[in-house]
Target: Protein-export membrane protein SecG
Amino acid sequence: MGFSIALIVFSALLMLLVLMHKGKGGGLSDMFGGGMQSSVGGSSVAERNLDRITVVIGVLWFACIVVLALLVKLDG
Model:
C-alpha cells in the first residue's frame, strides 16, 4: 500500500517537474507556449538544479514500479 501511494506522489511530482522545464524549441512545448520566455527558468543554476531533481524523482519513480512489480509477482 505504501509503495502505491509513493508511486502516485512521485508521478504527480514528475509531471510537475517536467512541465516546469523550459522548452528547447519545436515539438509540443511550442504549441503550449514553451517558446516564450517564462519566469520559471531564469538562471542556469536553477535549470541545472531542476534537472537534477527531475532525474532523482524519475529514478525513485522507476524504483517504485520495480518494487511494486516484484510484490505483485511474489503475491501471485
